[in-house]
Amino acid sequence: MQLPCDKPAPWCIKPAMRIFRLLKIVRVGLAYGLDELILEHEPTGRLRWLGRLAGILCFWRDLSAPPARRLRLALEALGPIFVKFGQVLSTRRDLMPADLADELARLQDQVPPFPSEQAMAELERAYGKPVHEVFARFDPVPVASASVAQVHYAELPDGREVAVKILRPGIAPVIAHDIALLDALAGLLESLWSDGKRLKPREVVAEFKKHLGDELDLMREAANCSQLRRNFKDSKLLVVPEVHWDWCTPSVMVMEHMRGIPISQIDRLREAGIDLAALSRAGVEIFFTQVFRDAFFHADMHPGNILVSTEGETRGRYIALDFGIMGTLNEVDQRYLAINFLAFFRRDYKRVAEAHIESEWAPPETRVDELEAAIRAVCEPIFDRPLRDISFGKVLLRLFQTSRRFNVEIQPQLVLLQKTLLNIEGLGRQLDPDLDLWQTAKPFLERWMVDQVGWRGIIKNAKHEAPLWARYLPQLPRLVHQALARDSSARLAEEIARLRATEARRNRWLALISALLAGLLAAVLLAP
After folding, report:
1. Cβ distance 350 to 332 under 8 Å?
2. Angle 437-453/331-345 helices, nearest 10 degrees?
């Protein structure tokens, strides 16, 4: 969904609203000492007096907490849109210090629900009829609430139990206002902070706007859910709710009501008899299946979006929820990741460097030996520890950070993947502290590589190309004849051009000789 403000930020906001919101941001920023965080890096030093003045005027504030924690608290005080911005910012670990990223990752999207009357009114607006004519039963008390939407339980006329996700009324203009202000603040940060341009805050804000725009269209989220469900239709590891399309609109999503225990409630899972070690390994397999089999993965797999089924034939399986943010990979991305991961397993740092250049992520003039040495310096100390103690996600992060020194552009989809991998790794080790993610992932990656480059890959690619071959094979004799005719015509044209050029040279020589002879004749005739 397009946000309602397409003019350059922040001038699309009404002046009074802009000034009021900006004053609140300034007040909260001063209260948490964000002026120090920004002005201490001001490159010219000319604005340091503002920090000293703020310290005098706000003498009552407590700045004993670390700057990263104060930033997190300030974002929580500014409201849900700034909280979500901090969450998105925490995924860009390739652009910020680790302590700041870790603190922002702790942001919780805990937002009070909007009144049930507004939810009912939004449903009536979406369906054009009263709620009781759409649902056999609708629970006005929400079961979950976030910054963009909230969820209610209901029952369809045919008796199926569903979860109804409803966008917050009037959320789009609020988001537009806050994004415009964030863009203005990002521009200020670029000017005042020495690392501002390198961190590209305005690009981060633009990426945030794109994510929120996607989340404001629940038809897009429903399509994501439907695709993931189709990918795992016969899976013994993951359950995805069914989308009820006849009841979905851009502002309302209706899906199957899923029952399970939140994955963060480990004691309840133990009481229910769930095998936590098997569950942790299943999470790793689900992740790599999404990435390397489907190239379509759930990019927001934090504990709040995952349940575990404890009933029926789905007992012990993961249940995925909230499909607003999904990641995709192309074949180059998949191959790059698989080669790099396997090379890491084997400590083949030269192959890692070559994969960077082959994938055209590193400039072609990059020296393989220099990139190899940089990667070795990062990774070799890691391998001195037991494999089960090594963070897969952090290795990928260190790779990104090292790559930046060689002007490697990190793709957004890989940043999402790295963030998801960290989530999966954290969940897996919370369930089973002895989880060896590397050992779990390696056989999967090796099988995938065999499928891609072995005889199975040849057959798969042949099947993929078969429709194209079937289209062009009957045309092959005519295409060959046309190519030969074009070749013959080209050779004939070249020969004619050569003859004409030879004739032109001969004519020039004849003209020159004629002129010389005429000159000599004239000289003889005119001689005394």
Report:
1. no
2. 130
Q: Is 139 a catalytic residue?
A: no
User: 157 with 178, same domain?
Assistant: no
Q: Are 93 and 196 found together in one domain?
A: yes
Name the band, by pLDDT with cuts 50, 70 and 90, for residue 220.
very high
State which residues form the domain around 402. Answer: 329-467
CA dist 469 and 475 (Å) reads 10
Gap between the Cα atoms of 48 and 43, Å rounded: 10
In angstroms, rounded to a whole number, what is the distance separating the alpha carbons of residues 337 and 399?
Answer: 11
Asked whether the beta carbons of 150 and 167 are under 8 A apart, the reply is: no
DSSP state of 8: S
Indicate whether 1 belongs to any domain. no
Predicted confidence (pLDDT) per residue in 54-89, tens digit: 556 665 666 677 878 888 888 888 877 777 777 767
Question: What is the pTM (predicted TM-score) of this model?
Answer: 0.71
- Give the pLDDT confidence of 97-138 residue by residue, as tens digits: 777 777 777 776 667 888 999 999 999 999 999 999 999 999
Phi, psi of 481 (to 5 degrees): -60, -45
Instruction: Decide if 405 is inside a domain.
Output: yes
Handedness of CA 414, 416, 418, 421 (dihedral sign): negative
Contacts of 410 (CB under 8 A, 6+ apart): 94, 361, 400, 403, 404
* Residue 519 burial (CB count, 10 A): 10
Catalytic residue of the set 35, 183, 300, 322 = 300
- Residues 396, 293: one domain? no
- Assign 318 to helix, strand or coil: strand
| Amino acid in the structure at residue 214 | D
Q: What are phi and psi of 42, to 5 degrees?
A: -65, 120
Neighbouring-strand partners of residue 167: 149
The answer to whether residues 181 and 78 belong to one domain is: yes
Name the 3-class secondary structure at 237: coil
In this structure, are 66 and 83 located in the same domain? Answer: yes
Q: Report the C-alpha gap between 445 and 345 in whole angstroms.
A: 11
Output the CA–CA distances (angstroms, integers) from residue 276 to 263, 284, 352, 432, 523, in the order listed. 10, 13, 34, 6, 113
